[in-house]
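Form 7-S
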Amino acid sequence: MKILFIDCFSGFTLDMLLGALLQLGVEEDFLQAQLAKISTGSCRIKFYDEESLPVTAKRVEVSCVDPSPDDRPQQIIGLLENSGLSPFVKKLPRRHSSV
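Output:
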């Protein structure tokens, strides 16, 4: 089993995290399939390479037609619990939150 530790001492955004996972070798098709299991309404996800000399990175762009849902922890946990993700994944947010 491999473990990834994310030291986000100054925070991060979802697109930054997803881009980093892609850079580490997670396949775009796998990531798309997992994200499709979460009911995100009209949101679309686009992956592409971005170059800012001398750095090349994976870029993830999320665009939504509808207004974004409230991002309070309880609502995000509910969204994940009602998704098609595995039972193990569904339990993680509640177990590691103070909600």
